[in-house]
């Protein structure tokens, strides 16, 4: 399938609230930006020109919000074709979506959990295949945070792995989501990482979250990344290897300097993995 320009290093989610500052002074330590294509398709004027100017300087990756590959309502093929045009226009090296559903004849504006069953594996894998055929390229599917499951005939890890293998797609491994789910559903996050098909992992996400008074975790993307999630990223790099890694921040936006500091920390972990044998992301300063 079609591949685009190479993407590597550490990136930041691009939000309209920061695009003016980026257009004026593109930070050299941010290797790529990620956008939700649905939020930018057919956007023209000043914003469209700014986005184009950014994508001409650094890679632009994409993470969809509304394709609903896990749903039963027919896929929106017009939307998929519009996404294809967006990816081609901006030469986006990565397109990803969530392993969930968000449409039941109308947009639900939430990412709802899949049942962990063989039937669901076959269903979503077939739909991912349809998307890849229209796009003419591989896509990556993301393990999502969830708070309940309609049915759990297999583990989350087995479900994710089965979908990726049957769909013949890539995996966007969200490290924060692994941590969140491991706390909420009481499993070992390192064991989850070990069970992922390493050869399919093309991309990582990092983010912060919110902890309720009772210890339950909400995947908010509205806080700094905490140390246990950084540790899990280091473990993932050691086990699977360095891949392009994105910092997600959607709410409670800090200043650009603080966002850059977290992106730089990702790069420190990545550079530690490239040091001579005997040192790793766990031990590098």
Q: Could you explain how this protein is built, in words?
A:
This protein is α/β, with parallel strands linked by helices. The chain has one domain (10-273): TIM Barrel (Alpha-Beta Barrel). It contains 9 helices and 12 strands. The strands form 3 sheets. An 8-stranded parallel barrel has the order 1-2-3-4-7-8-9-12. Helix 1 links the parallel strand 1 and strand 2 (32-35). Helix 4 (118-135) packs parallel to helix 5 (156-167). The chain is globular, with a radius of gyration of 18 Å.
Cα-based radius of gyration, to the nearest Å: 18 Å
Biggest beta-sheet profile: 8 strands, parallel, barrel
Number of helices: 9
Q: Helix proportion of residues, in percent? A: 25-40%
Supply the CATH superfamily name: Divalent-metal-dependent TIM barrel enzymes
Q: Give the C-level CATH assignment.
A: Alpha Beta
Q: How would you classify the helix and strand content by structural class?
A: alpha/beta
Mean pLDDT: 90
Q: Which fold does the CATH topology refer to?
A: TIM Barrel
Order of helices and strands: EHEHEHEEEHEHEHHEEEHEH
N- to C-terminal distance: 40 Å
User: What strand line-up does the widest sheet have?
Assistant: 1-2-3-4-7-8-9-12
CATH architecture: Alpha-Beta Barrel
The residue ranges in which pLDDT falls below 50 over 5 or more consecutive positions are 275-285
Q: Rough shape? A: globular
Q: What fraction of the residues are assigned to beta strands by DSSP?
A: 15-25%
The count of strands amounts to: 12
């Amino acid at each position: 399938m079609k591949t685009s320009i190479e993407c590597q290093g550490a990136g930041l989610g691009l939000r309209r609230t920061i695009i003016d500052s980026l257009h004026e002074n593109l930070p050299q330590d941010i290797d790529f930006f990620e956008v939700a294509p649905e939020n930018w398709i057919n956007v023209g004027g000043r914003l469209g020109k700014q986005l184009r100017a950014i994508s001409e300087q650094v890679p632009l990756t994409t993470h969809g919000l509304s394709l609903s590959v896990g749903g039963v309502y027919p896929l929106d093929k017009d939307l998929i074709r519009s996404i294809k045009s967006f990816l081609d226009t901006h030469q986006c090296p990565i397109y990803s979506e969530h392993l969930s559903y968000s449409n039941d004849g109308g947009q639900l504006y939430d990412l709802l959990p899949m049942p962990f069953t063989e039937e669901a594996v076959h269903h979503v894998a077939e739909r991912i295949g349809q998307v890849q055929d229209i796009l003419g390229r591989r896509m990556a599917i993301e393990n999502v945070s969830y708070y309940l499951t309609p049915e759990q005939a297999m583990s989350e890890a087995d479900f994710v792995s089965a979908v990726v293998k049957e769909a013949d797609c890539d995996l966007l491994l969200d490290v924060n989501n692994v941590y969140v789910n491991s706390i909420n559903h009481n499993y070992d996050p390192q064991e989850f990482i070990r069970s992922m098909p390493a050869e399919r992992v093309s991309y990582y996400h990092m983010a912060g979250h919110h902890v309720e008074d009772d210890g339950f975790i909400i995947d908010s993307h509205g806080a700094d990344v905490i140390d246990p999630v950084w540790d899990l990223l280091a473990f993932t790099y050691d086990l699977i290897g360095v891949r392009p890694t994105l910092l997600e921040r959607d709410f409670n936006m800090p200043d650009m300097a603080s966002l850059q500091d977290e992106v730089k920390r990702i790069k420190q972990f990545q550079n530690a993995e490239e040091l001579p044998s005997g040192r790793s992301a766990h031990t590098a300063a």
